[in-house]
Amino acid sequence: LPVQYLLAIESSCDETAAAVIDDTLNVRSNIVASQDALHQRFGGVVPEIASRAHVERIMPVIDEALRQADVTLQQLSGIAVVTEPGLVGSLLVGLTAGKTLAWLLDVPLVAVNHIEAHLFACRMAAGRDIFPAVGLVVSGGHSNVYNCRSETDLELLGSTIDDAAGEAFDKVASLLGLPYPGGPSIQRAAENGDPQAFRFPRSFIRDDEIRFSFSGLKTAVLYEAQGIPGRNEQPPDLTPQRIADIAASFQEAVVDVLVAKVQLAVRKLGHRTVCLGGGVAANGRLRERLQQAADENGFELVIAPRELCTDNAAMAAIGWKLLQEGRTAPLDLDVTPGLVR
Ligand code: KG4
Ligand code: ZN
What we know:
about 350 residues; alpha/beta; Nucleotidyltransferase, domain 5; 5-stranded mixed beta sheet; 11 helices; 10 strands; about 20% strand; globular; binds 5'-O-[(R)-(carboxyoxy)(hydroxy)phosphoryl]adenosine; binds zinc ion; transferase; EC 2.3.1.234; acyltransferase; iron; tRNA N6-adenosine threonylcarbamoyltransferase
């Protein structure tokens, strides 16, 4: 049988991405146009700026993905496009491009869930079936724990009651005057810091429920960085060492609760495998601590390489699964911005 190619498109947040993946899940190209520079001065993603930038970039990014894969439009067997969850204006740009190409080329269109795609990146990295597994998706928009029965059958076990883990990294970085996106900045600053310097709150860490809260932690950081409002005190001097210590202590607090809840889910479900996806999965300390927990507790940890953790289109290769299951989408397909599962 000749090799078949899938074009995958991802534009759910602030990365414009396209990839070509063959039917053996080989990534032939993986192009990500980051908008970090556009959102930097706002300390977070501005939806209207994001969707406008997607409009400018989507066609060049698709062209580049095809060029690097050395594949023509006519060779494509299908189009996979991320349609949920995400920013509505951003999602619509990718969907419109995907629909147009599917209609023009008369190939099937499949709708990909961004969260499922993040966890599918682990399946791709493993090169074999990894399910059933506990799945943790930690990104700018989500901190979700799943019972993954298969790549397309996820049950949400719990999530955050306020900020997402990545959002906390971004906000704390902004409080400390570190550049956006906050995750990589905090990780870098933390390298020179003492993770025990500040004892920050670890919400829900000991209870028996799978849930997260990061807003108390964020406030605790605010007080250490800028002083307690209303108190007639000179705010502490934010020296590079103090910034590093706060960053390291904050990172340790986030990692502590994420590791604890993964272990809780492993105990509750009895799965032997844990997979980790989303931008925060690129965090070195989290990867290290989860690996330790895996070694101590006898579960297997599967994490994608860093470039497949942050948003990308290669992970939308889960579209091959959907195609095989005959789950193609009609051309009047719409986006679903909210998290449904
Ligand atoms: O998955 P992703 O690229 O986009 C969303 O779906 O949200 O995740 C982006 C988030 C941002 O909040 C960013 O600060 C965080 O992932 N992030 C990290 C690291 N790299 C990216 N957080 C902690 N450590 C990192 N190394
Ligand atoms: Zn994501």
